Amino acid sequence: MLPASASQLLNPTDVRREFLRLLPIALFVIVFGIAFGLASVQAGLTDWQAILMSVTVFAGASQFATLELWGQHVSLLPLVAVVFAINARHILMGAALYPMLRELPAGRRYGILFLLTDANWAVASQDYQNGRQNLSVILGGGLVLWLAWVAGTVFGVTFGGLVADPEQYGLDMVLGCFLLSMVLGGKRSPRVLLIWTVAGLSAVAAYWLLPPHTHVIVGALAGGVLGYCWKERRHGG
C-alpha cells in the first residue's frame, strides 16, 4: 500500500463523513459527560473548573479518577500518577497510528492526537487492517466525541441529577460493545485471534491480581509484544 499524502489523509469531505459516522457513539458520550458534571460538582469543583477540565483534558476515565483525589489540598504527584497510569494505553495507540501520522507535519500530527479516543482509534485501526489509511476518523470522529463530552459536562453541572448513574441503565457497556464490534469486523487470522486472546486473558488476570487500572496497560502490552514478535507474513514485493 502506497503512503497517502497529508491532504489525502485529512480531506475535509472525509472528516465530515467520519464526524457523522461516530455521531451515534457521541450520543452515549453525552450521558457520561452529564454524570461527570454531576460528580465533579459533588466532589467540590466549581462549574467552570469541571467544564475547563473536560475542554482541556478530554479523558473520561482519568477525569472520574481525579475526583477521588480531589479535596481542599490536592496532592499533585498521586494525581499525575493516576492519570498517567490510566492513559498510558495512548502511547501504544499512538504508536499503532504512526504509519499514518508520519505523513503529517509535526504540528498537525500532535494536534490531532488530542482528539484520540478508544472509539476513533478502533475505527482507524480496523480501516488500516483493511488497507485504508483513515486519519479523518481521528479528527472528525474525535471532534464529535469531544463536543459531546464537553456538552454533557455543561449539562451535568447544571441538570446532572437527571442521569446520576449511567451504569444503572447499562450505558457503560456501549463503548465496550462498540470496540468488540470493531475487533470482530477486522482482519481474521490465527495470528490476530491469538493476539487478542493473549491480550484479553492478560487484562483479566491483571484486573484481579494487580492495582486498579493496570489491567488496561498489561493487556495492551501483552498483545503488542506478541504482535511485534510474531510478524505478519506479507505476500509479494
From TrEMBL:
Gene Ontology biological-process entries: L-valine transmembrane transport
Keyword Transmembrane part of the UniProt annotation: yes
Membrane topology: Multi-pass membrane protein
Localization in the cell: Cell membrane
Pfam families noted in UniProt: AzlC (PF03591)
Primary localization: membrane
Signal peptide boundaries: none
Keywords: Cell membrane, Membrane, Transmembrane, Transmembrane helix, Transport
Domain of life, source organism: Bacteria
GO cellular component: plasma membrane
InterPro entries in UniProt: Brnchd-chn_aa_trnsp_permease
TM segment ranges: 20-39, 76-101, 137-163, 169-186, 193-210, 216-231
Family under the similarity heading: Belongs to the AzlC family.
Name of this protein: Branched-chain amino acid ABC transporter permease
